[in-house]
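Reviewer 2 asked us to include a model.

Predict the structure of this chain.
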Amino acid sequence: WSEIASGVAGLVSAFFEQPDETCDALRSFGASLFAPLVDRLGWEAPADEAKRPDGYQTSLLRQLAVSRALAYGHPESTAEARRRFYAHVEGDVSAIPADLKGAVFASVLREGGEAEFEALKTLYKAADSSLEESLILGAMGAANDAALVRAALEYNLTDEVRKQDGAAIVASAAG
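Predicted model (structure tokens):
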């Protein structure tokens, strides 16, 4: 599945300058591959997953499937990401599994707008770990709206963001 994800991502990347219909078809193809895995594996690991012989691999597959379904804009997955994001913003810290936070944050910003960008900034200011900060900053450059990408890059230049952490925004904006 990792090789499939890499191959599809390579195709999407190679055709990014093609007409919207071509890009949309490639994203739809990617979503059609990974959405059934999300449906089968879900968003949450069962309590006994870590004890199973294949538990670690299943966890990695879940993370890959959800992140790819979100990256390709699968409607049900993006709706679930949005629901979990706003539950997280409202204080439910268990709403987003830790290994899916980066994908959820990026998806919500890609599908959203200024409100989601501001919510990410608020989460960044309240983050209690450098990992959480890094995930949020990495998502900030993932917007589809050029004005939001510009806003993220400008935010990167403020004193709010430690200089050593700013590469995450630049990398996601470049992507």
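The chain has nine helices and no strands. Residues 20-41 form the longest helix (22 residues). We have added this to the supplementary material.
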